[in-house]
Amino acid sequence: METLEIRVPDDRIGVLIGKEGEVKKRIQEKTGCKLIIDSKSGVVSVTRGDDPIGFLKAKDVVNAIARGFNPDVAMKILEDDFTVLETIDLTEYTSAKSLERIKGRIIGKEGKMRRIIEETLNVHVSVYGKYVSLIGNIENVSAAREAIMMLIDGAQHSTVQRFMERKKREIEMHSMDWHMTM
């Protein structure tokens, strides 16, 4: 059996386990994988069951919780094949000195920019540590990643909002086209 080890921050171990182990149990039941959580080291071993897709999804759910998502949001990855997790390591794009400023640009005043990204593109956004993580439909996550990269590169919030509105319309048009062909 294939096993993968994932390092989970200490403050996220309890969230991954859940009250009376319920989150861990739900992940195992829905994916067919076995999770072994070492709360001392923060290492989570994910052992594959019979379903290789379940294994990949279990890995993504554990990573999503490790990156700051609420377990209920992380579990959306299990709902369909088009819901994905994408993580951006901000240290690849900015210096450690600028990290807090960049995170602040992405979150916005009182969380406004993050909320606009989530509502406009129908994605979930987590800014945790040095990471920005996204959960949503593949196409929406791609657009949200582009918007976040624009913010990292210094684009004004208003420019990013116009970009997101345009992307939202394009995604809606693609969706309508796809439904018409069925």
Can you describe what's shown?
With 182 residues, the chain is α+β, with helices and mostly antiparallel strands. The chain folds into two domains: 3-77, K Homology domain, type 1 (Ribosomal Protein S8, Chain: A, domain 1); 83-181, K Homology domain, type 1 (Ribosomal Protein S8, Chain: A, domain 1, 2-Layer Sandwich). Helices cover 53% and strands 19% of the residues. The protein contains eight helices and six strands, in the order E-H-H-E-E-H-H-E-H-H-E-E-H-H. The strands form two sheets. It has a three-stranded antiparallel beta sheet, with helices on one face. The radius of gyration is 18 Å and the shape is globular. The N and C termini lie far apart (40 Å). The model has no long low-confidence stretch (mean pLDDT 94).
Order of neighbouring strands in the sheet with most strands:
1-3-2
Determine the number of helices (DSSP H or I, runs of at least 4 residues).
8
Distance between the termini: 40 Å
Indicate how many domains the architecture comprises. 2
Radius of gyration: 18 Å
What's the CATH first level of the largest domain?
Alpha Beta
Task: Report on the biggest sheet.
Answer: 3 strands, antiparallel
| Outline | globular
The CATH architecture classification of the largest domain is 2-Layer Sandwich
Residue ranges: pLDDT <50 for 5 or more in a row?
Answer: none
- CATH topology of the largest domain: the name is Ribosomal Protein S8, Chain: A, domain 1
- Residue-averaged pLDDT: 94
Task: State the share of residues found in helices, binned by percent.
Answer: 40-55%
Q: Indicate the structural class.
A: alpha+beta
Order of helices and strands: EHHEEHHEHHEEHH
